[in-house]
Write a structure and sequence with these properties.
Length: 375
Amino acid sequence: MTEIDYYELLEVTRDSDKVTIKKAYRKMAMKYHPDKNPGDNEAEEKFKAVNEAYQVLSDDEKRQLYNRYGKAGLEGHGQRSGFSSGGFDDLGSIFEEMFSSSGFSGFGGSQRERKTYNYNLDVAIELEIEFNEAIFGCQKDVKYSYKDACTDCKGTGAKNGKLSSCSACGGQGQVHTRQGFMTFAQTCPHCQGSGQAATTKCKTCNATGYKTKKDNFDVNIPEGVSDGIRIRVSNKGNIAPDGSRGDLYLQIKVKEDSHFVRHDDDIYIEVPIFFTQVALGASITIPGLRGELELKIPAGTKDKEQFKFHNEGVKSVQGYGKGDLIVQIKINYPKSLTSEQEELLQKLHESFGLESKPHESNFEGMFEKVKKWFS
């Protein structure tokens, strides 16, 4: 299947602001909503894609990653983008507003079966990896917990799965509050928007609707991943009463290194050198990501001056070459001198003659000039 650009999907330009993106999303969502296109599989797929595009472009961090790396930058090496844990709540509130005046009852329409379990199928966990593991890739053993629907109550939290209309919202799934002339609707906190509540609580799961289970598996972390990137692992999330299963999202956290600093695909390292090496010039061996490198320091190099080694940085997570290794010079001076060193430095200083006193030639005539200002 050809990957469709999110901006093209919403029919907006890449520099569009959030207001424009939200308006475009509402328009496209109304157009392809399943309740307006019953039995149209193509419209349903478009509707899902529109939702996915909005979830990314309405989030500043996700949008920045998408603009730079595409979908792979969001979900890892070649993975599809997914919703955040709060994404479905955002969608629900938008569709409640969009369809409330059109005879629709919330997200999905009144003719669709309401969700009877109160947890999301997708799971997100943080996975911490070492600095070098992010650069070169690795295999990690992931240990995590997931939710499996209680068989006795079919995920409802009610004894034998028997639910009644929620008394708090009258079965509407929403509660309304009035402030002045405005009325605001929000998801019912008692039934989480389902409109149904347990008559008698299920003792097997203590009315939670699920049992917590533990699992572990090996996952391959691709070369070049960066801090904050998410990797989707299919069918490792929570399990619904009908047996369908969500996905597991691994939020990558990369530990810092004591010497190397990463920025995008470039690597920075500070190299301390002695002041005499600056004066004389030098050639020194420094550590690179993949081995030793030879750094030539020209005489007269300045403090914080940078030298670049091309293609010695991090490999792009999308496979588009490597970044650079950038060396920044830090000039060190002696903290104290012996009497012999002072004598040698004094002789060296005097050997340069007038060149050793650049301030004298630079300020020549300045003292008399300043005196005249006050005469």
